[in-house]
Amino acid sequence: MKKKMILVLDIDGTLTNSQKEISARTKDAIEGAMERGHIVMLASGRPTAGMRRYENELELKKYGGYLLSFNGGRIINCATEKVVFQRTLPSDVIPKIYDYAMSHNLGIITYQDDSIIMGSKGDQYIDIESRINAMPVKPVSNFLEYVDFDVNKCLLTGDPKIAEVCVEELQEMFPDLSIMRSEPFFIEVMPKGIDKAQSLDRMLESLGLHRENTVCCGDGYNDISMIEYAGVGVAMGNAQDAVKKVADFITLSNDEDGLVVVIEKFIP
Prior knowledge:
Blueprint: E1 6-9, H1 11-15, H2 24-35, E2 39-43, H3 52-57, H4 60-63, E3 66-69, E4 74-77, E5 83-86, H5 94-103, E6 107-112, E7 115-118, H6 124-133, E8 137-139, H7 143-146, E9 154-157, H8 160-173, E10 177-183, E11 186-191, H9 196-207, E12 214-218, H10 224-229, E13 232-235, H11 241-246, E14 249-250, H12 258-266
Parallel strand pairs: 1-2, 1-12, 2-3, 7-8, 12-13, 13-14
Antiparallel strand pairs: 3-4, 4-5, 6-7, 6-9, 9-11, 10-11
Helix pairs in contact: 2-12
């Protein structure tokens, strides 16, 4: 092997097909890359608990893979369970984010261990978050009183047209935070300087590796930073147009085993 590569994979719409499953062909290709000595990192806006299913399915603990959760708010070494990087939201901004969500009729949630903590009325988008992560929703009557723990991310939910406007307003109101849409109906609120690329860069530095060693694959808005950063940035065939514009390579869709094409082309 000429050099060790880091294969960084978004989960939803990238690693998984439309049924949220890893196809047998994609799984075999990924495991083959790990058997050849390459490193696999799953990089998602999901909470850590919502990534465990795929960590286990790919046997990342056995192969020494990594989980980058909360869009980069936390990175875990699967083999040791050690948190190798973490950033949390300043506690004084959470009431302000909550007030904005309530005044704009948005849903608001955060995460505690294996549960989703909901501080608003439920909506179809929170139901989606619960379902895709296989995590129960815990409604709380006083969100601000309940959330007395470190928070990697708050997630605001709403109709895509409303979310499109709100994300721009929030970015102007909170320039010291990292705020983006991961899906048209999800607004991710995270500490400043947190995105998939910046957190990946910190991990690579600790491993003595470089961005030229990375192949980053994704389909959503929150994947743009790591696709631009990567040695090879890959957009799935089903990716948002904005993602395709910044990619070095566009592969087949997540329902056509697009990752197999990537591994065969870029991971020796």
